[in-house]
Amino acid sequence: MDEVLDDEEFGEIDIVVNQRARSLRLRFVDGRLRATLPPWASEHDLRLFIDEVRPRLQKMIEKIHSEEASLVIDQDHPLQTLSFITNLSRSNTHKSIYYRLADGVLYIEVPERLQILSPEVQQRIKAGVEHFMRIEAKRLLPPRLQRLAAQWGFRFSDVKIQSSKTRWGSCNSRRNINLSLYLLLLPPNLIDSVLLHELCHTVEMNHGPRFWALMDKVTQGNAQQLRREIRRHRCRL
């Protein structure tokens, strides 16, 4: 069995086989699902178990996201993305929150009447930031993916930008690649690592030894280190 299982909704699920385990178990570790399996369990058993407890897992994810929704964007806490940084200020002229992207800066002007730190205003600010992140992701990520594909001899059919908050990217059997707009929150080397990960899936659809050997080849032997670094980042605002 692979050490990682792909799920359409939850993304990559880490697998640990425990010789002493008597039943299947799923829990969240560092924001990722980890499955503990007894030695007799198969991948089919795990998939059936995931489908059985899927509603419960969905509620757990919602709770985790709610608890982690502490990221604040204000004057003292700008958000840096791959192509712009936020610059928030007060405004006496605008009746609603105003956005302008220019020269690598997303200017955000908030009317004086609004409380910047209120949950409602923070939600509106983040929605605006995500709007521009989507625009920038569509502009930057496809050519970046194409460049890496050409460099390493990969071929893919199509690429789409999505707003997935559970996985950085995915690739199906038709070599169609989906990328999360939240990739723009990662450092450039980790963005490339995710893109290479999905490109490797155009050759190896699972996470078996041949997949990781290919990932090591295109990352100069740093596949596991990059994987650990990516896990420290949030796939959302």
Overall pLDDT score: 91
Overall geometry comes to globular
Radius of gyration: 20 Å
Question: Which structural category do the helix and sheet elements fall into?
Answer: alpha/beta
Describe how the helices and strands are arranged.
Elements: E1 4-7, E2 11-17, E3 25-29, E4 32-37, H1 43-67, E5 85-91, E6 98-102, E7 105-111, H2 119-152, E8 158-162, E9 169-171, E10 176-180, H3 188-200, H4 209-218, H5 223-230
Parallel strand pairs: 2-4, 5-7, 8-10
Antiparallel strand pairs: 1-2, 3-4, 6-7, 9-10
Notes on the structure:
It is a single chain. With 237 residues, this protein is α/β, with parallel strands linked by helices. It folds into three domains: 4-67, no CATH class; 85-135, no CATH class; 136-230, Metalloproteases ("zincins"), catalytic domain (Zincin-like), CATH 3.30.2010.10. Helices cover 38% and strands 23% of the residues. The protein has helices at residues 43-67, 119-152, 188-200, 209-218, 223-230; strands at residues 4-7, 11-17, 25-29, 32-37, 85-91, 98-102, 105-111, 158-162, 169-171, 176-180. The chain has a four-stranded mixed beta sheet with strand order 1-2-4-3, with helices on one face. Strands 5-7-6 form a three-stranded mixed beta sheet, covered by helices on one side. Helix 2 (119-152) packs across helix 3 (188-200). The longest helix has 34 residues, at 119-152. It is globular and about 65 Å long. The relative contact order is 0.11.
